[in-house]
């Protein structure tokens, strides 16, 4: 089973079709089709249901996908680990919550770049739940998420305790306003909804935004309230228009740390990143 065939297979799955996969792999459609066909012949099973231009995973394809991702991740990770022992050449794919990325990540990445100048850094932001899934499916090497995270396949190294505060505009009563929050999968969202229920807010509706600035901007003009890390609020351009209220410890104290696969070989860059994040948050 060739790695290029597995790489092609996962590209078809991730991109949703042969044409899109060929563009991602910078090859022609016929190459993608022939690699998939040879892989199916080798395994003796159909990997996709084909319907028009689209494809859907067959049962055998669903089984193979997890193994393919693990094999490709191990191939990439082993090569990077060997190179990092020497001159620090390789790639590190880092995920982060948007709030953490805006507040702490720049200085930490600067430190990683200084110690590993030839290491290519790839960064993406998303909700904690999505980032956990991407680490588990080998799409990210590590991620900074809100915890605690308990999973048999993951390590969670706590780096900082973030304090969540209730934020609203002056002269507004948050109990009479909608909650403004990130989309499903955000750890802060879960705590905000729990606080909303526990406090008996008269307005149970919520508005979703995809960006930190969008949430705080709407809160600052009195459109609703939210829960946000204190340090994020203090450094926001909207801070002068915001009122901050302290919350009970069971809601406000959020352990935040770095997750990575428990069985992954040690990478010097991961240790550097963890140390840099810890320094940046003190």
From TrEMBL:
SUPFAM superfamilies, alphabetized: Periplasmic binding protein-like II (SSF53850), Winged helix' DNA-binding domain (SSF46785)
Gene Ontology molecular functions: DNA-binding transcription factor activity; transcription cis-regulatory region binding
Database matches in InterPro entries: LysR_HTH_N, LysR_subst-bd, WH-like_DNA-bd_sf, WH_DNA-bd_sf
Keyword Transcription regulation appears in the UniProt entry: yes
Domain HTH lysR-type: 1-58
Stored Pfam families: HTH_1, LysR_substrate
Entry-linked PROSITE patterns: HTH_LYSR
UniProt keyword list: DNA-binding, Transcription, Transcription regulation
PANTHER family: HTH-TYPE TRANSCRIPTIONAL REGULATOR, HTH-TYPE TRANSCRIPTIONAL REGULATOR GLTR
Protein name: HTH-type transcriptional regulator GltR
Gene encoding the protein: gltR
Protein family membership: Belongs to the LysR transcriptional regulatory family.
């Amino acid at each position: 089973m060739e790695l290029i065939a597995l790489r092609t297979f996962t590209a078809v799955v991730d991109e949703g079709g042969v044409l899109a996969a060929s563009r991602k792999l910078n090859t022609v459609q016929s190459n993608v089709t022939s690699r998939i066909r040879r892989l199916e012949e080798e395994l003796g099973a159909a990997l996709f249901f084909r319907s028009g231009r689209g494809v859907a995973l067959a049962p055998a394809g669903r089984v193979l996908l997890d193994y393919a991702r693990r094999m490709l991740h191990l191939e990439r990770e082993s090569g990077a680990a060997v190179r990092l022992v020497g001159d620090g050449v390789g790639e590190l794919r880092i995920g982060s919550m948007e709030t953490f990325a805006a507040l702490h990540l720049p200085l930490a990445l600067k430190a990683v770049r200084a110690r590993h100048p030839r290491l290519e850094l790839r960064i993406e932001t998303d909700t904690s739940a999505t980032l956990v899934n991407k680490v588990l499916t080998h799409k990210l090497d590590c991620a900074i998420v809100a915890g605690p995270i308990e999973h048999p396949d993951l390590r969670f190294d706590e780096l900082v305790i973030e304090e969540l505060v209730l934020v609203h505009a002056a002269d507004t009563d948050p109990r009479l306003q909608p909650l403004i929050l990130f989309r499903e999968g955000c750890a802060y969202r879960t705590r905000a909804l729990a606080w909303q229920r526990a406090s008996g807010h008269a307005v149970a509706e919520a508005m979703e935004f995809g960006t930190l600035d969008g949430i705080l901007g709407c809160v600052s003009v009195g459109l609703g309230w939210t829960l946000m890390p204190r340090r994020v609020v203090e450094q926001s351009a909207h801070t002068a228009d915001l009122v901050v209220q302290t919350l009970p410890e069971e809601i406000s104290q959020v352990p935040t740390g770095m997750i990575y696969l428990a069985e992954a070989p040690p990478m010097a860059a991961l240790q550097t990143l963890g140390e840099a994040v810890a320094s940046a948050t003190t």
